[in-house]
Every structure is written in structure tokens, then in C-alpha cells.
Amino acid sequence: MRDAWQDLLGRLSGPHEDFGSGDVASWKRADFEALCDLGLVSDGQLAASILCPECSAHWAEVMWNQDGTRAFIVCTSEGLPINVDPERLRQWEPNKPRFAAELAAELGIPDPPLNLVIGRLWRLGRCSIANRQRDIFFAAVAPDDLQSAVIEIRRGYGSVAGVLLLPSAAPDPGQHSKLKVIDLSNASALRCGRIDVDLPFIEEQFTDGRRASSKGLRLKSPARDLKEQRMGILRAFAPSRDHKQMKDLARHLGVSPSALYGMVRDDRSRYSQDKLETVLSRIGCSRAKWDRSPKPASHA
Ligand SMILES: [Zn+2]
To answer: Ligand 1 centroid vs 46 CA: distance in angstroms?
Structure first.
């Protein structure tokens, strides 16, 4: 089974492409229905070409008989026309404006988003993050196009200190930007038929930065020490620091990134105890080691 939510985020950051019946068949039925109910994917055009169902060795153009009731392809290795069930040709189109609207609603923003660049960039509105009202933007762009989104935001709103939500990991926009870039593939999931935005995760991106910048002036909290230790355990298992790798690690362990980050910070609304046990056994870490508070750092 593939993760429908992560697949959708992947399409939002890549070239605009519909999902085929094969994509949809690889998702949990409930996730597919939730995406349809939320309007995040909707019926698109029938596929014009498909992977040959006979030999799977080539793509074939879909042809229709004269009255348009029967679809077929020609298998080049067999040299034969082969009928294709029209159900196989169905495609589902990701709906970016709807995605922006659902995201805003999930963040409790009452007004509809403002589309700044058609099909690419929205201002969702303002909401409280880490005890401050902040401007929230969403850009359905590839990591390479992050700078153009940042420039557009600056053009409209100046040097605004806010949150820029992206469907995938992207490099930091640089010190000159006050925008905090958040990768939705780490900070959201599809749960119980709706978008679940991991606000505590987003808030941590603000509060952790603040603590890091005042390092040495303020004692670190035991909870934060434990969190760092757990991140260290995960990194040791998959030796990489960047978020994209955390996402890959989550997939490897069979959990959502949101659940994995939930485990790190003890947010039990995001994972079941069974899942935690499974993850710990996969990474070869005992429960005692996972829960053991690190020794307080020496303040000398
Ligand atoms: Zn063929």
C-alpha cells in the first residue's frame, strides 16, 4: 500500500499530473474516498495512453471504436488489438485551490485563501503559531521554485515574518527571509477522513530556533533533551540529518512522518503504542532506552 497523502503532496510539488487507476488502487480505499470527499482529487480526463496490459513492456495509445463505446490498444509485441476496460482509463486530478482552502480551514482561518499566483501560491490568512499571529502562505511548487515564491510574497507583503507551507522538503530560503518554510510531508497527514496539520510540530520550528539562538543563556528543558536524544537514536539508525531523510525513514518503518515525530515528542494522539513498539523493534532500541531521560548537561 502506498500513502495516498504523501503521493498527493508529491504531485502538488511536481509537474501537474493526474493519478491513474493504478495509483489509486495502491492506496487504502478509505484514504482515496477521503481525498474525493474533501475534493482534493476529482474525476479528470480518461487516460490517452496506458502501460500495455498484455505485456507491460511498452506504453500504448488508447484508441476508441467509431461510436466511442469500446477502447483498445495495440500490443506491439503481440501485434494484436487488445480491449481495455474503460474503468482502467479513469484518472483523478489533484485540486490545488481546494487543497489551499482545506488547509486554511484546518488551521481555523475563516476566510477563503487569496490566490497570489494562479495555481501556485496562496495566502491562507493569519493564525496563531507559537503565541503570535502570523501570516500563513502555501506554495504548490517544486523545491527549485521556492525562491520565486519567496519573491512573490515579498512583492505583496514586504519582509513578512510568517510561515510558508510547502508540499515537500526545500532548502532554507536564506537569512534575508523571515519566512519559516515548513515541509507538509512532515507536518501533515490524512487522518479520520480529514487533513491533520501537526501544529505542535510547526510551533517547534519557531521555539527550537529561539532556544538555539539563546544557547547557553537558558537551561534546556528535560523534555527537549529527551526529544533530542530520540532524534539521535533515529539518526543513528538512518544516519542523516535532513527532514527528507526522516520522511524516508518513516516510510521505511511503515509509519507516517507525523506519527514518527509524534513518537519523538510523546504526542500520543499521533501514534498507537503498538506502532511505537513495532518501530522500536525495527530500529533495535529498547523501550527503556527510548524513555530514559538523558543526564543533565554540565553547566560548567
Ligand atoms: Zn504489449
So the answer is: 20
